[in-house]
Amino acid sequence: MASQDGLAALGVEGASAAAHALSLPAEAYGNDPRLEVMWAMKAYNHAEVYFNLISSVDPKFLKLTKLDDRIYSSFRETFKDLDVRQLKEEDLKSDQAKERWRPFCNQFEGLVEDFNYGTLLRLDCQKGYSEENSIFSTRVQFFAIEIARNREGCNEAVYRSKEPRS
């Protein structure tokens, strides 16, 4: 992942202003490109923290939310055959996929904080975040897929690749 120059360049006051701006309702803004950059930086920082986490802690022991069990069971009930190891863009973005994802995501409104915020998701769970291996998803989609990957052992390859060799 790239350096943190984006946030550092803002300074304390700028970062504070950015945090405040991101907490305002969407109606407070038009199509402000500065806001899009702030959201992209927030998504990037979330991705970096998460990847560092699964690289240093055995993912099968991670708990991402208070609702992991509920999210996972609902996810696997709705998406029984979805291969979380290797996602395709159509799994999230096709019209058919959106029709299935919408009710799934909406059931967590008010339960999962920022459930529909934009988040970066890896397509191939054995690889890191890159332009080719990342897609925007909602936060609850990210949680559902990453909880499944952790519980089903899919993220273990990332963790094992960072273990010191003896």
Automatic annotation (TrEMBL):
Domain of life: Eukaryota
Matches recorded under Gene3D superfamilies: yst0336 like domain
Residue ranges constituting the Polysaccharide biosynthesis domain according to the UniProt record: 35-159
PANTHER family from the UniProt entry: PROTEIN PBDC1 (PTHR13410:SF9)
Protein name (Swiss-Prot/TrEMBL): Polysaccharide biosynthesis domain-containing protein
Taxonomic lineage of the native organism: Eukaryota, Metazoa, Chordata, Craniata, Vertebrata
